[in-house]
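Fresh eyes needed here. I'd like your take on this protein's tokenised backbone:
***
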Amino acid sequence: MKKILIGVLILAAVILIFVKKPAGNKSRSIAGIPAPIQSAATGGTSFEKDGYKVSIKYKADYTVEALVLSTHSYFSGSITDKLAPKDLALGWGTVAEYNDRIDFHWSQSGRWYHWRVDDSSVLGPVGGISGVSKQSANNHLIASTETIQKLIENVKTGGHIRITGYLIDLRAEKDDGTYYTWSSSTSRDDTGDGSCELIYVTKFENV
């Protein structure tokens, strides 16, 4: 009886190994995702957060549908982390389409996203290094409601999402004069410091 039971447990373990999907569906690909849509915007909003008076200026209306390439949460307790506790690295176009066929290594840290491939010759279908840069981005997300914040918190790598909101300039200031500023890129062509999108999110959908 003991030998039979052990055999059953081993068989069950083997079945789980082959049936279980990769954690977070990291190698998922999605074809046909268009480039983000951006248009001029005016106005803004303000609120209080963690002892700061936060003023937001809208730079552009922004909608991005994308494959979630990586996620990273921040817990330092800084005003930055309180405003945007979770960053999403997103891809669209051919980057999203070929994500499962090109051995991308996506990661995030220090409010940056990083990627590499073991062999750059495989990047032809996505337009080379510049193609990856133009069809992927790191996104700092400031939720306009607690409901949206919960949706963001639940996002996993491999998700298919659509974000609607604004690219913004932000200033957070305390009564003692302490202040912090944060500004969004408005281009998909830039790289390096300042190239991330800072989005005030008014709608968040799982597609």
Observations:
- The chain has one domain: 24-206.
